[in-house]
Amino acid sequence: MADWSYCEYRITGEPEELDRLFGIMQKVENAEGGPWLCDLMTEINGEEAEDGRGQWSELKREEDCISFVFEGAGRTYIEEWDEVCDNFETLCPYFKGELWAYELAQKRENPEKGWFPDKYYLDMRYSEDEDDEAGSFRTIEDVYKRIEELTGTKISSEEDVEALRSALEKENDDTFILIYEIEEIPRGGSSSHTLFSWG
């Protein structure tokens, strides 16, 4: 079974092109197969897509964008969403996504609209009695503050995080603390990067 990514997407551009893409996405969504990216690419390009193992949900036509949640097999699929938007003159996708099994967080920020400004992603389990804690943050100081709130341990540096991780691991080897830098993906590019990998 594939490891799935979880992504929030927003596509912006001229209203007429947004309406056109939204209509195509609704058509694919209401078809027998459901809202698969590969079916959307096939509908737009007129030929069967080679890859596109993922589905969207929560599709909305907002005032200045199309928004949806996308879950993809093994990666965030930004290249394919770029390809979808390349069929229109003005459309561009922005997103934030995580692929937990591969310690990967990616985004394409839109500073003008304030979309996806966070720069760090925290994934941790600090007690056998607690579920995993995950979230994204604008600064590394915000990450440290959240770890401190959860564990009651003063955190102000990478060394403090490492010391806490070691202490937690002595009590329960299922605990972990992972902090990723959310990688900015330019139009037409994709790669992976992990800033810290503790635990």
Strand content: 25-35%
The helix fraction, in percent, is: 25-40%
Largest sheet: 6 strands, mixed
Oligomer description: single chain
| Low-pLDDT residue intervals, each spanning 5 or more residues | 191-199
One letter per element, helices H and strands E, the order comes to EHHEEHEEEEHHEE
Structure description:
The structure is a single chain. The chain is of the alpha+beta class and 199 residues long. Helix content is 30%, strand content 29%. The chain has five helices and nine strands, in the order βααββαββββααββ. The protein has helices at residues 15-30, 37-45, 78-85, 140-151, 158-171; strands spanning 4-12, 54-61, 66-73, 92-99, 104-108, 120-125, 133-137, 176-181, 183-184. It has a six-stranded mixed β-sheet, covered by helices on one side. Strands 7-6-8 form a three-stranded antiparallel β-sheet. A hairpin with a 4-residue loop joins strand 2 and strand 3. The longest helix has 16 residues, at 15-30. It is elongated. The model is unreliable at 191-199 (pLDDT under 50).
Q: Secondary structure elements and their pairing?
A:
Blueprint: E1 4-12, H1 15-30, H2 37-45, E2 54-61, E3 66-73, H3 78-85, E4 92-99, E5 104-108, E6 120-125, E7 133-137, H4 140-151, H5 158-171, E8 176-181, E9 183-184
Parallel strand pairs: 5-9
Antiparallel strand pairs: 1-3, 1-4, 2-3, 4-5, 6-7, 6-8
Helix pairs in contact: 2-3
